[in-house]
Amino acid sequence: MQILLNLEIVSGFLTELRSAGSREIGGLLFGEHIGGDAFRVVEFTVQKRGGNHGSFVRNPDEHNEELQRFFEKTGENHTRFNYLGEWHSHPSFPPVPSVQDVETMHGIVNNPEVGANFLVLLILRRKADALAMSAMVFRSGYVPEPVQVYTELRPESPPARRRIRTL
Predict the structure, then answer these.
(1) Fewer CB atoms < 10 Å away: N or C end of the chain?
(2) What is the pLDDT along the chain (167 residues), one digit of tens a residue?
(3) How many separate domains does the chain show?
(4) Who's near 57: CB < 8 A, 6+ residues apart?
């Protein structure tokens, strides 16, 4: 699986992480299916409450509202635009999923009310003005797998990519 982040999305993450300082934040990832197993992150949300120095607790009610807003905005075109997964920061720890992160993602992907075939978890950490990250895909009944993350140097030209440093 491949995830593409354009420079505007990367800049948005950096701005939010800078603003949050040492407090963990997170939110939803919305993506556009661009072919095969490749998806472009077109939008992300930021849940600013629920995090502290060492943990982040997602707010399902807030997330449901954001899901509905995104689906209305994209005309309910779930084949092209959909909920891709979640992200959160680890400002004080390596950007790798914790045991709690893995359990949470398994709980979401195995929830029949969510109805997701897969979910991506992106863990971010700001280092100066750059992002360090890890990305994993979760599927029901499978072990999480790493995801390749690329930045798009020119959003209209997917071949013009460079790999983001992932752990």
Answers:
(1) C
(2) 999 999 999 999 999 999 999 999 999 999 999 999 999 999 999 987 776 677 777 777 777 888 899 989 999 898 899 999 999 999 999 999 999 999 999 999 999 888 889 999 999 999 888 889 999 999 999 999 999 999 887 555 444 444 444 44
(3) 1
(4) 50, 51
* One-letter identity of residue 147: V
Distances, alpha carbon 157 to alpha carbons 35, 40, 67, 89, in Å:
13, 12, 28, 29
11 DSSP 8-state letter: H
pTM score of the predicted model: 0.86
State phi, psi for 148 to the nearest 5 degrees.
-80, 130
CA 101 to chain centre: 13
Which amino acid makes up residue 18? R
Calpha distance 86→24 (Å, rounded): 13
Question: Domain of 15: which CATH number?
Answer: 3.40.140.10
Domain containing residue 113: 2-163
